Amino acid sequence: MSEPVFDLTIIWAGIIAFGVIMYVLMDGFDLGLGVLFPFAPSEDARDVMMNSVAPVWDGNETWLILGGAGLLAAFPLVYAVFLPALYIGVFLLLAGLIFRGIAFEFRFKARTSKYLWNWSFAIGSTVAAFAQGAVVGAYIQGFNVENMAYVGGAFDWLTPFTVLTGLGLVAGYALLGATWLIMKSEGSIQDWAFKITPWLLIAVLVVFGVISVWTPFVDPFVAERWFSSISYIWAFPVLTLLCAIWLVRSLHQRRDGSPFVATMGMFIFTYLGLLASKFPYVVPPDYTLWDAASAHESQLFLLLGLLFVIPIVLVYTAWTYWVFRGKVKAGVGYH
Amino acid sequence: MDLDPLLLSRIQFAFVVSFHAIFPVFTIGLASFIAFLEGLSWYTRNPVWERLSRFWIQVFAVVFGMGVVSGIVMAFQFGTNWSAFSYAGANFLGPILSYEVVTAFFLEAAFLGVLLFGRGKVPQGVHFMSAIMVAVGTFISSFWILSANSWMQTPGGYELRDGLVHVTSWFDAIFNASLAPRFFHMALASFLTGAFVVAGVSAWYLLKKKDAEIHKRAFSMSLWLILIIAPAQVVVGDIHGLNTFEHQPMKVAAMEGVWETQRGAPLLLFAIPDQEAQTNHFEIGIPRLASYILTHDWDGEVPGLNEVPQDEQPPVAIVFWSFRIMVGIGILMVLFALAGLILRRKGAYATTPWFLQGMRFMAITPFIAVLAGWFVTEVGRAPWLIYGVMTHAEGLTPSLTGGMALFTLIGYVAVYTVVFAAGLYYLMRVLRVGLPPEHEMTTADQNQRAKRPLSGASASWEEEPQQ
Question: Do residues A173 and A29 touch, judged by C-beta distance below 8 A?
Fold first, then answer.
């Protein structure tokens, strides 16, 4: 493998890693609201929940498409192994996203058929969250790859471990959704969010804890990295726990914004811990970032364009936000 | 029965992409129409144009939303079912698809928000500009995706190293041999689709005598557009066909039903191609015309399907008949355009019932023609996925089984049926409600709406209680 003068692969890894966590945080809370939807105390609460994320959710779909296309451009091996290996899971994810997507649009226009769109939103969100969690689990497990192609079976990804990571992300997103609601609502709806958040936190800590203990047994490479010597990597779980403590304190003080920020912190440090455990393997157990990378000239061609285009995108996106500045009124969203 | 993952994947891809394609092909044309209406409104200050524009923006919002939802699947489909193809072609296709997202999708998304909800919040000139930006975005998007598709038809600017595509010239790869005719053919098809739908819906309102004076303007405008574009499409389609004849002669052989290389090939109007026997049954044709169209010489030589082994021939019957459906609809469009011109002399185009009924039914035909055209070009490329480089079988995901492919095929059909039924039902509601009232929507009204595509439409899901 001839090394180019400067290593774009690391830059691209940074871009994709950043994109993934941005997607997880931004889509996480609105998927989480979908998970919580059936348990909401009233139809009014559901209106508020949906209205609070309505303006932002569909931007996330564009980021998801960019994620798919960007992965194909920068790390085609990841694209060409993950998608076949997770074939059934990817279908469930997309079907879930479609149903919750159209529920957003049609629920506001419906009256007697509203309950149908409620279920569409709730089930679609939960399935999508579970599927994303299972992807994380499958990544930790690794893939059966020969000659740069996936050769395993249709359900290799579906193991007790990935079911647990799937449930973990459902709980995690629900926690993000609940703390988002604390920030965005008031009165009885906020009270409800305050009430359920501690239980969700307990669920998340238990599931994340089990996953953390289980992971070294699933992947000896991870075990080696964590236990061969005490390293910086232990900072990540410590920081995650500190965020959890911060969350508990802010709930006690009934803060509006801090619970959400603390939950995001938990997500970020867990994510960094995961990346640090696996680096530099992107298609475990055998393939590194550099094995998975596309040709240097392709990475360069896209990167140069992005450096030029993304600032323009940011400028006009910022401009549209400025046009619609100010508060979105509470209340029902259909007329 | 053995389930063939290759066949099932091809059916699934055809289904998903066909379902997706009907939305953008309509919104590309409609976006330009809306930009035009906004321009008229800005220039003339006549409130009629604004009402008309507001109505069509609602329709646009619903259709655009459906396109976005069905488009997500496309971004992942290449990897799930065609991973070997994705991996081999990633060095070119990855950056191209990424450029489509960053140069087009974000542009459309951002300015669509302003177009749908910015009226009254931004100066009218800026609102007009937003309409233009949405229209421009739709064209940028089709440029990139057609570049990727054209490269699969006529690959250029690349070399293969260890079975992987490496781009040697980005210019030659992006502006490959068939991009220009394909792009213009598709752009005109989008305009035709937009124009025929606007004309058909307007004709329906004219028949119902609902806001007839206003819809008559849209009807008239779209008829003028059709009068120019329908004949132009015949010319561009011919150029596209000649381009295909040069680069993919077997596709043209299938389109024309030519089994054996011959001079003075007839233009077949009807035939039942028989792939087994390598011949046609019940041929009806015009002698020597195919040779003349393709080579501009009555005795020109047209290569037949016998030039390649039987397993390298495309499925002839599908290509042959899809091509005839597309051309037949094209001729019908030109005839309606001419009828509109003749009726215009006495101003009868907006009152003649048979013409209005005819235009109403013509609204569906551009979609059929576009899908038929894509079937010609995609099925006609078979067995190649990247022409001359990689076959469908080689591009398939190796780990895919027939059962998996069948599961998702049934799944996508089910999901899309629900989505499409809901979307179509809601679109009908929007059309039933008709033009928005003359007074501006109040700001409070707008504040309750989110910046999302479908929120741009104001019809309710159920019948409104008495107002």
Answer: yes
pLDDT digits (tens, 9 = 90+) for A147-172: 899 999 999 999 999 999 999 999 99
**Is residue A102 a part of any domain in this protein?**
yes
Burial class from Cβ neighbours inside 10 Å (0-12, 13-18, 19+) for residue B44 reads exposed
Residue A331 belongs to some domain of the structure: no
The nearest alpha carbon in chain A to B455 belongs to: A105
Residue type, B56: W
* Cα A51 versus chain centre, distance: 21
- CATH code at A262? 1.20.1630
Nearest CA in chain B to A52: B450
Q: Which two tokens stand for residue B211?
A: 């806001």
Enumerate the domain spans of chain B: 5-245+310-456
Whether B113 and A309 lie within 8 Å, measured CB to CB: no
Q: Using 50, 70 and 90 to split pLDDT, how confident is the model at B301?
A: very high
Question: In this structure, is residue A330 part of a structural domain?
Answer: no
* Domain count within chain A: 1
In a domain, A329, yes or no: no
- Torsion angles phi and psi, residue B396, rounded to 5: -65, 150
Amino acid at A49: M
pTM of this prediction exceeds 0.95? no
Distance CA A130, CA A158 (A): 11
Range of the domain at A262: 8-298
Contact list, B398 vs chain A (CB under 8 Å): 84, 149-151
- Cross-chain Cβ contact B401/A154 below 8 Å: yes
B99 touches chain A (CB under 8 A): yes
Cross-chain residue pair B458–A333, CB shorter than 8 Å: no
